[in-house]
Automatic annotation (TrEMBL):
Gene3D superfamilies: Medium-chain alcohol dehydrogenases, catalytic domain (3.90.180.10), NAD(P)-binding Rossmann-like Domain (3.40.50.720)
InterPro entries given in the database record: ADH-like_C, ADH-like_N, ER, GroES-like_sf, NAD(P)-bd_dom_sf, YIM1/Zinc_Alcohol_DH_Fams
UniProt name for this protein: Alcohol dehydrogenase
SUPFAM superfamilies: GroES-like, NAD(P)-binding Rossmann-fold domains
Organism, scientific name: Flavobacterium pokkalii
Amino acid sequence: MKRIQFNNYGDASKMYLGEYELAQLKPNDVQVRVKAAAVNPLDWKQRRGDLKLFMNKKFPKGIGNDFSGIVEAIGSNVQNIKVGDEVFGTMDVKHPGAFAEKLITNSKYVTKKPINISHADASCLPIAAAVAWAALFIKGNVTQNSRVLINGCMGAVGSIAVQLAKEKGAWIAGTCSKKDIEEARKNGVNEVYEFTENNYWKKTQPFDVVFDTAGLMQQRIGFSMLKSNGKFIDINPTPMSMLKGLFIAKYKFTFATAAMKHLSDFANLAEKGILKAKIGKETNISKAIEILTEIENGNGAKGRTVIIF
Ligand SMILES: NC(=O)c1ccc[n+]([C@@H]2O[C@H](COP(=O)([O-])OP(=O)(O)OC[C@H]3O[C@@H](n4cnc5c(N)ncnc54)[C@H](OP(=O)(O)O)[C@@H]3O)[C@@H](O)[C@H]2O)c1
């Protein structure tokens, strides 16, 4: 079987399209023939070694996390999924490898794909929807009465966060590049700021939640926009900011894993047309390394990139 893999941590040149053999299926695992796999920043962060403390030690390692496909085999304990089901899901952070013809993952990271959405659309959901859900509803306790600012509201995570917050009935402000302001308004962002605009944060009323998807907002500025009991939510924490987070009540950090158990909620929302990622480019496995390198270097297409098998 073919997959994109690497033999040691490092830059984009470490990736190659290689042959591999699937591991033995464990009792809670499912084996999936991949139909589509979406690109996330996590993919190259794992390959660079940024998360090596959390990863399995063996090489070669696969790359890629979010996927959609068809179940080919199930472990002896798997109850909710059967061979032939169309599913979408993600990989355990210890064992990436979704940019592959076939993969094995734990069934807890997989749910049935609604029939009215494509494999490409489904593959874009898991990490972006899980981290947005964790930030807004687990850490931020967002309700219909909340005022929420989403920093980076047109990114993969930010645009899904807008959809989730809007569905909840919250009032949303967002920041994005100048080119995206009109589209952000069309997406339902009530007040849109260009993130380079000087002191935009002084123009607005305080928020219950400031969700910094981009990881580029100074905490001092984020905190200055909060109500007294508001929360600043970071999904790109550094060791130092995580340490601070343990002592500062209004600073919260979170990871997608905190809400991966809500995959079936994402499926329901996608089925109703409430959750939908914007796909910018589709490619195939033989061109994927070139495209992944472009995205990593900041030269990718606008919207999500999906590898179609
Ligand atoms: N903790 C977790 O579990 C978790 C999960 C998913 C993602 N993440 C992290 O979250 C980050 C965002 O991921 P993503 O997939 O949404 O990436 P993305 O699609 O590239 O979105 C990033 C967005 O930030 C915008 N941006 C750039 N500079 C900005 C600034 N100075 N202020 C505000 N916004 C700015 C970009 O706008 P332009 O494109 O117009 O420049 C883009 O829309 C990544 O670092 C990723 O690793 C963490």
